[in-house]
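The passage that follows is intended for readers who have already worked through the single-chain material. We present the inputs for a multi-component assembly, then the predicted structure in tokenized form, and finally a short commentary. You are encouraged to pause after the input and sketch how you expect the pieces to fit together before reading on.
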Amino acid sequence: KARLHTKTLGQKLVYKEEVSSTQEEAHKLAGKNEPDGTVVAADKQFQGKGRLDRPWVSASGTGLWFSIILRPDIRPQYAPQLTLLAAVAVTEGITNASGLHPRIKWPNDILLNGKKTAGILTEMQSDPDRVQAVIIGIGLNINHKIDDFPPELQSKATSLALENKGTAFHRADITASVLRSLEYWYEMYLTDGFGAVRRRWEELADTVGGHVRAVSRLKTVEGYAEGITDDGVLLIKQEDGTIEKIYSADID
Ligand code: BTN
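Having made your guess, compare it with the prediction:
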């Protein structure tokens, strides 16, 4: 705790060695009025949850898995802004603590040399017109060796240590740095709105300004990635000039 240097984020910290999913724990706590900035962290998760109902491999004890409860006074449709904000914070937090330079892949995969080293899952508890809590789950692959990933992920996943010639990091340092940067951007967001966050996201994202293919269950859209909207929607300009809005998809 002494190393956190944050004002609110993580000042209430619930740490568990092993848990089914920190996301689930945070949902329970959010329902019980735990304050803005509460963090639930674990060394191992047995049922880590990823985006789009995918499992998130996190039982090895070589990463850090945590979920943050935020209570911004916003309408539910703006919650995706916090996903992009978290991606900016994780990217900068990793850079500040490790010297490595990850890039963002829309909406919020954090990649080093094209492989995923962190993932973010944002969920919320909400009334029809007001957010009660946004739960931001962050998974950081920190000291994994390649065999800590299942074979089918070994070409797509990586860890900070693997991209650092195998030299391990202190997991608490990386986590503290991510929380510090999350607090910085969250305060900026609450006072100045989404503009600065969006500009920074676009600088750190490889997805924008190039040719992409967005694959979802419904369809595949190919074209030039123009940018993101205030709602976190990806805009793709197709060959015929029409602009398609992508809400949820995987990007090739
Ligand atoms: C993704 O890229 O699919 C998102 C992965 C999010 C994983 C984190 S780990 C902490 C929190 N608890 C979970 O069960 N999931 C998130």
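Commentary: The chain has a mean pLDDT of 94. The longest helix spans residues 171-192. How closely did your sketch match?
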